[in-house]
Amino acid sequence: MATMKDVAKLANVDISTVSRALNNSAYVHPDTKSKVLAAVKELSYQPNILAQGLKKGKRHTIGVVLPKLHMDIFSEILQGIEKQARMHQYSTIICTTEDNPSVEKEILNRLRVGFIDGLLIAGTGKNNRILRDMNADGMSIVQIVRNQETKLSSVIANYETSAYEATKFLFKKGSRCISLINGNMELAPYRDRYSGYRNATIELGLDEIHIESHDNPNTFEYGYNSAIELLKHNINIDAIMVAVDIQGIGVLRALKDLSINVPNNIKVISLTGHSVGNMLETSMTAMEIPANEMGEKSSSMLIDKIENQKNGRIGVQHLTFQAVLTEREST
Amino acid sequence: MATMKDVAKLANVDISTVSRALNNSAYVHPDTKSKVLAAVKELSYQPNILAQGLKKGKRHTIGVVLPKLHMDIFSEILQGIEKQARMHQYSTIICTTEDNPSVEKEILNRLRVGFIDGLLIAGTGKNNRILRDMNADGMSIVQIVRNQETKLSSVIANYETSAYEATKFLFKKGSRCISLINGNMELAPYRDRYSGYRNATIELGLDEIHIESHDNPNTFEYGYNSAIELLKHNINIDAIMVAVDIQGIGVLRALKDLSINVPNNIKVISLTGHSVGNMLETSMTAMEIPANEMGEKSSSMLIDKIENQKNGRIGVQHLTFQAVLTEREST
DNA sequence: CTGAAAGCGCTTACAG
DNA sequence: CTGAAAGCGCTTACAG
Q: What's the pLDDT score for residue B126?
């Protein structure tokens, strides 16, 4: 691999001039610059990121903390994150927490001591204090999907609107007893879904039937059991909204076991679709969110923060995406 | 962050001694060593990996090239990869190719010029030449799931045995007309599945009904269309084996649309299960493969190679896992 | 057994 | 406008 020294020799200048020409960090005579650029090209020189990093105190690495990857929307988000990271020559350290706050805590404490330049996190909300500390210490942080701490930047979908619109949609389709299977209300996205649902039911004059959960609700089993539970107590339910796709798959299975026809007797809609809906025996209507794009945006927002931290410290930014209603067989 | 200099000062020795004590790279007097270790502890010193890397010419980063993450077994494998990488203080650069050989080629050519110390790849098999070149240049490489190039190490599942055993299992369940929906036969894992299937059918005296594909077969749509196609030409089919889960989900949907009962009229089994099978309206029997463990093993094997490259160059290793038959409703 | 010195490949004040 | 020098935080021959 050619080094800056090789380039300097070929271009007949000092390495400091090469550095300046490449980084535009000071005026370099145009003629000198083209000589340098020609040499760079000839040697197909690539700067050594380690050396740059050592000098600048940067590692060119971002930490990515997510609940899980397998069978989850985060795998799609991650593809977007990685794409932008790669384009900016950043590596990643990916950690999954299974939404266990103590696992998350341990991971954050390891990550903060000099492993990463910035952090992308979909957190449990239980370690906000650590996040604030890290941020105060100069770590760039962007929250993804879950805006748990308004003092930190975020890239999320508008779950409140999703739930509101989904409820209205079901009403228009004829449903009058609409229930919501939700997640842990201590997490912002679930609170938002509830709030949108609640506003719509009030507006429409409907009863509110809401199940929340304190442990891991992002599962097939939780969807399944919640549906059974719901129908045991509410014979009239004619629509079930679920927070995420995987719950919906559980609900569909439960309704099949109970020999309840979808969508005629009960309609089902997911509030966080990610292109799984159309791959089922009964394809599922969903508010589809642009997962890949959200990943890309969060990643580039973070890298931007990292690289412009010195000059004028970028402020807190919140970016919100809208979900798109995609009708399928379950409604 | 404390540096080696701080440790040296506190322990009253030269930084070179600190380095030696920490790396066990030369004999250090036990007393000196404990002084150093005490200082390290007091300052909670963490070596700067960038500086180490700069000196040793290593980046502490591995490249991970996979077909895709979303709705795929690779997302689970990746969790295992990341876990081991993190434990060894390695970062990753993750690239998805969608099994497009030219995308893969571009990615490999970018990655090879000094970005990574080693490569983990589930490749298309179309760029084996580049891989061999990279390996000859000193890049450590481990193939995962797909052993396309026997001169390079690999961690795979035994697909041949999976297909063989699955066929025998279906026979025992009463099936006599067993078909296989497979993938691109240019890829080793699909050839292996076919071979296991073929051996079993010959042994059992059954007809062979095999569909392969040249483009992206790892989809719901491909499974769906293949099932329709298959049944158009072979009225007697009473069992369908699919290469991967997602195809099986498509097959189940197709059979539902055709009002064919599963498992009474047709049985369905997936040859590469990854815990999706039990989450469906009709849960699916599968040869389950230990994805997470395969990820961990491939990752630690690669890091081992990277770190022991100098002393005695580790030879080519091939590690094979067995799938486990998990019966569910579809058989 | 341990210290002093050189060097990995860069960046950036400091001169001129 | 550009060169010479110092330094980022380590490792490793070279002496002694």
A: 92
Confirm if B81 and B87 have CB atoms less than 8 A apart: no
Predicted local confidence at residue A278, as pLDDT: 84
Q: What is the pLDDT of residues A134-160, one digit of tens each?
A: 998 889 999 999 998 999 999 999 999
The structure's pTM equals: 0.90
In terms of DSSP H, where are the helices of B71-219? 73-87, 101-112, 128-136, 159-172, 188-204
Nearest to A284 by CA among A315, A255, A314: A255
Q: What is the pLDDT of residue A324?
A: 95
Rounded (5°) CA angle B321-B152-B307 = 90
Q: How far apart are CA A131 and CA A319, in angstroms?
A: 19
Residue A70: DSSP 8-state: T
Q: What is the pLDDT of residue B216?
A: 74
- Any CB–CB contact under 8 A between B71 and chain A? yes
Question: Over chain A, what is the mean pLDDT?
Answer: 92
pLDDT one-digit tens code per residue, B281-302 = 899 999 999 999 999 999 999 9
DSSP string, A259-314: T--TTTT-EEEEEEE-S-GGGSSS--EEEE--HHHHHHHHHHHHHHHHHTSTTT--
Q: For residues B62 and B131, give the distance between their C-alpha atoms in angstroms, rounded to a whole number.
A: 15
Q: Is the pLDDT of residue A82 over 70?
A: yes
SS3 at position A318: strand
Cα separation, A311 vs A298, whole angstroms: 20
List the single residue in A49, A86, A278 with the smallest CB-CB distance to B95: A86
pLDDT at B140: 93
Q: Identify the sign of the CA torsion A131, A137, A141, A147.
A: positive
The answer to whether residues B287 and B272 touch, using CB atoms and an 8 Å cutoff, is yes
Helical (H) or strand (E) element with A92? strand A91-96
**Alpha-carbon distances, residue A252 vs A257, A285, A300 (angstroms):** 9, 12, 37
Question: At residue A268, what are phi and psi to the nearest 5 degrees?
Answer: -130, 135
Q: pLDDT at residue A277 above 90? A: no
> What's the pLDDT at A219?
86
Instruction: Give the CB-side neighbour count of residue B276, counting CA atoms within 13 A.
Output: 27
A32 touches strand C (CB under 7 A): no
Q: What is the pLDDT of residue B222?
A: 92
**B279 DSSP 8-state letter:** G
Rg (CA), chain B: 25
Angle CA B63–B92–A188, to nearest 5: 140
CB A18 within 8 A of CB A8: yes
Lowest mean pLDDT segment, chosen from A44-58, B193-207, B225-239? A44-58
Please give the Cα distance from A320 to A144 (Å, whole number): 10
Query: What's the CA gap between B225 and B257, in Å, rounded?
Result: 12
- Cα(B207)–Cα(A161) distance, integer angstroms: 56
Six token digits for residue B2: 């404390």
On whether the CB atoms of residues A279 and B250 are closer than 8 A, the answer is yes
CB-CB contact of B196 with B210 (8 Å): no
* Nearest beta carbon to residue B281 from set A75, A79, A256: A256
Closest C-alpha to B188, from B143, B220, B227: B143
Listed as ranges, the nucleotides of chain C within 7 A of a protein C-beta are 1-5, 7-13
Task: Looking at the complex, report in whole angstroms how far the Cα of residue B71 sits from the nearest Cα belonging to chain A.
Answer: 6
Mean pLDDT of A196-202: 97
Q: Is the CB of B32 under 7 A from strand C?
A: yes
